[in-house]
Write a structure and sequence with these properties.
The protein has 13 helices and 13 strands. With about 375 residues, the protein is an alpha/beta fold. The strands form 3 sheets. The protein has a 7-stranded mixed beta sheet with strand order 1-9-8-5-4-2-3, with helices on both faces. The longest helix has 19 residues, at about 245-265. The protein binds pyridoxal-5'-phosphate. Pyridoxal-5'-phosphate (PLP) binds near residues 58, 88, 159 and 194.
Length: about 375
């Protein structure tokens, strides 16, 4: 059986580091606001080359806090991809604003300037660019557009830890950029965790307050906030894992090139393309496949777990059906929701397993 994720395999390689990280938190008993939280914020900001990192409870809260810090409120519109995880839209709604969906580009499944421009109205406050699957969105174009039209840009880097566009890691072009450390992300905690990064000291302080009841230190409530903290155990785990992130991303890239090689002759599917100026971190290796559902079932019968990211484009999931959108408005997202299939890609997957998966895919299309 080849699982879609196998977190045990990774844990076994770092067991002693994790055990000592956990026991140091337990012996300090500083389960919240411990030393490791501060240390992780410094280490992660340094690694990216960003001035500030503020830890949060999860990636969805990071988006909500970023939108709040950028003063999104009722009556505003925020442009989000039609094809992404639901948090990008729900965080906008949580602020009382309206998510405006834009179709993704066929080449890399991220949002591109031309499509975004067509959706800008007098109510538009900003955009959320998502580095879907670990592929960098064209953030330099989008940044230029936002500057020209006086909009904010949030980069959702939940799937893109150390993805590069040009010479820089993603997360440096947004007014605020958000990360998730959900356990299966490229850098994953042992529970929920997230952060925001920004080069703007005022926005960083605002996010820090919003995430901690409006206070920087106890009882200093300058505004109303929420409780969204990364706990010390998660910070200690992430600190222990951080030195391995580049190696794990490299291993994912190797796995992706093996898939590209072994799948290249199959005309019924399309492997991911990578824009020349980006370094893809392959959080997800998603193919577009003819007879996707039958292929998924066939692989499952042969002990191979796959996933669908995502089975429905956002305009067609329940909370957004009242918007009344039609598939023809989002041709690429519509096609993706029917064709996309994610194959296992985690760093510890072996070449033999990849060969087996590819052989089974070939067998399916020969039937
Ligand atoms: C995982 C993810 C999030 C949300 O992160 P959580 O930590 O699960 O709240 C947001 N956006 C994208 C694109 C994601 O993949």
């Amino acid at each position: 059986m080849i699982r879609f994720f196998d977190l045990q395999r990774q844990h076994r390689t770092i067991e002693s580091q994790i055990t000592s990280a956990l026991s140091s938190v337990i012996s300090s008993s500083q389960y919240l606001k411990g030393e490791q939280v501060k240390q992780f914020e410094i280490a992660f900001a340094d690694l990216l080359g960003s001035k500030h990192c503020v830890t949060t409870a999860n990636g969805t809260d990071s988006l909500y806090l970023a939108l709040k810090a950028l003063k999104v409120s009722a009556g505003d519109e925020v442009i989000v991809p039609a094809f992404t995880w639901i948090s990008d839209a729900s965080a906008v709604s949580m602020c009382g604003a309206v998510p405006v969906f834009v179709d993704v580009d066929k080449s890399d499944y991220t949002i591109h300037r031309r499509n975004v421009e067509a959706k800008i109205s007098s109510r538009t406050k900003g955009i959320i660019a998502v580095h879907l699957y670990g592929h960098g969105a064209p953030i330099h174009d989008l940044r230029q557009l936002c500057n020209d039209r006086k909009l904010f840009m949030i980069e959702d880097c939940a799937q893109a830890h150390l993805t590069k566009v040009g010479d820089n890691y993603v997360g440096l072009s947004g007014d605020i950029s958000t990360f998730s450390f959900y356990p299966t992300k490229n850098l994953g905690a042992y529970g929920d965790a997230g952060c925001i990064v920004t080069n703007d000291s005022i926005l960083a302080e605002k996010c820090r307050r919003l995430a901690n009841h409006g206070a920087l230190v106890k009882n200093d409530h300058m505004l109303e906030g929420i409780n969204s903290r990364m706990d010390t155990i998660q910070a200690a785990v992430l600190l222990a894992k951080l030195p391995f992130l580049k190696t794990w991303n490299h291993q994912r890239a190797i796995n992706a090139s093996l898939y590209n090689l072994y799948l290249k002759e199959i005309s019924q599917l399309i492997t991911p393309s990578v824009r020349a100026d980006t370094i893809h971190t392959f959080h997800i290796y998603a193919i577009r496949a003819n007879h996707r559902n039958e292929l998924k079932a066939f692989l499952a019968e042969n002990g191979i777990q796959t996933e669908i990211h995502y089975p429905a484009a956002l305009p067609f999931v329940e909370p957004y059906k009242p918007f009344g959108h039609t598939p023809a408005e989002f041709p690429v997202s519509d096609q993706l929701q029917h064709e996309i299939l994610s194959l296992p890609i985690y760093p510890e997957l072996t070449e033999d397993e990849i060969v087996y998966i590819c052989d089974k895919i070939k067998e399916f299309y020969k039937k």
